[in-house]
């Protein structure tokens, strides 16, 4: 969790926060998507997290991708900006957020897959027509749109 969000949580507790996130959908040469099984809710999703104060969104996406997967993005392409009720979420610890998720596609990357032990149980590539279940609720609408774009 970002230092900014941690500071806000200290003030407001579990009350809903507007949270801006940067996410990265990594595609391999076969067009499969890299997903991680999250430790907090044991659901699948793409790499991403909160944007820090004064951080450029693309920099946040690159940082989160590296922290969570060990991969470094060589290029990022904006996939979309996602918001609304579908992205409203209550984390297992009770923290409530209304997410605005700025999501990139990454097809060119370097590095070796390595899980961030604190947040990620495992990393795997999946075909668009065989996404694992359960998908993390605020990420599911974005992944469904990605899968539809691949058909």
What structural keywords apply?
151 residues, alpha+beta, 22% helix
Describe this structure in words.
The protein is α+β, with helices and mostly antiparallel strands and 151 residues long. It is 22% helix and 40% strand. It contains 3 helices and 8 strands, in the order αββββαββββα. Strands 1, 4, 5, 6 and 7 form a 5-stranded mixed sheet that branches. The protein is globular and about 45 Å long. The mean pLDDT is 96.
Write the element-wise H/E pattern from the N-terminal end onward. HEEEEHEEEEH
Distance between the termini: 34 Å
State Rg: 15 Å
H/I helix tally? 3
Helix/sheet category: alpha+beta
Kindly state the mean pLDDT as a whole number?
Answer: 96
Fraction in beta strands: 35-45%
Could you name the ranges where pLDDT drops below 50 across 5 or more consecutive residues? none
Looking at the structure, what is the overall shape? globular
- Count the strands? 8
Q: Percent helix among the residues?
A: 10-25%
Major sheet size, sense and barrel closure: 5 strands, mixed
